[in-house]
Amino acid sequence: xxxxxxxxxxxxxxxxxxxxxxxxxxxxxxxxxxxxxxxxxxxxxxxxxxxxxxxxxxxxxxxxxxxxxxxxxxxxxxxxxxxxxxxxxxxxxxxxxxxxxxxxxxxxxxxxxxxxxxxxxxxxxxxxxxxxxxxxxxxxxxxxxxxxxxxxxxxxxxxxxxxxxxxxxxxxxxxxxxxxxxxxxxxxxxxxxxxxxxxxxxxxxxxxxxxxxxxxxxxxxxxxxxxxxxxxxxxxxxxxxxxxxxxxxxxxxxxxxxxxxxxxxxxxxxxxxxxxxxxxxxxxxxxxxxxxxxxxxxxxxxxxxxxxxxxxxxxxxxxxxxxxxxxxxxxxxxxxxxxxxxxxxxxxxxxxxxxxxxxxxxxxxxx
Length: 367
Description:
Layout: H1 4-9, E1 15-19, H2 22-30, E2 34-38, H3 45-58, E3 64-68, H4 80-84, H5 89-101, H6 122-132, E4 139-142, H7 149-157, E5 161-166, H8 169-177, E6 182-186, E7 192-193, H9 199-210, E8 216-219, H10 225-233, E9 238-241, H11 257-266, E10 272-275, E11 283-286, H12 289-293, H13 307-322, H14 345-364
Parallel strand pairs: 1-2, 1-9, 2-3, 3-4, 4-5, 5-6, 6-8, 8-9
Antiparallel strand pairs: 7-11, 10-11
Helix pairs in contact: 2-3, 3-6, 5-13, 8-9, 10-14
């Protein structure tokens, strides 16, 4: 199954996969899709550079992309220590008390580090772009909408396409007006940052709004070939999948992910919650005792981005290292109800494509 998006990205199948794991991203690309590596976990540009070197060597010459977190409006930001000073003491006290109540152990000596915090800052996201453009990437995607216009122009000068996520048709129009090449229509069901409109409604709205100017990828609640077929029927040129890769065997290669996978495998489609506690912006997360604690009467209101990230960064590290599936903190979409076994990425894509082909064959028989 080839669509225009396949030609634009140089891929065999209309499947784009976002993931924080380089092992998953490389496997998606090797299987004929486009693996898109999330960069927000990298505080250090040299670390990202090294990982992209690894991607270059492990994608068999197939294209891949990166995903950054970059607001179009440049915020005023100081050094990390300045941002730390903006966090109210009562918020810190609540987090520490909650971790104690949940039985989450302290980090070992030497582990107190702000993993993934600086990646949410605009200046660091720009450094991610600079590093990525030194590699043979095909796509830069922005999780927060349109990147600044000068960043879009910078990507285009390197013959790199730019994608932006949109939760409304008006967002999609603005993205394309700014020079974005591909719009990712991400519905309410998606994991991570997500809007209010469901995928079934959102995709045709965005296709109608910008489809004559830019291809559209459908995202949110997609984890089967039937759903990819539905996305194509709605006018999308392919599917963007994020959550579905979290139960792949390649994802388990990241440290601390065994407990996360255990929690995801046991969850149903109703076991998620949309909250600002992860980043300060609404994001869909796996519902656990950690998310429940933020709904208690004594819980403070989440802080704005990036202060909430800084507030909970060490907590997320402690939770991950605790190995307790009952308290994991993980963005995931409602498709988690279909994520019931650990399989290699290649098998996942093969099944998606087989069901896509079967679905289209069945529909053709209805004529």
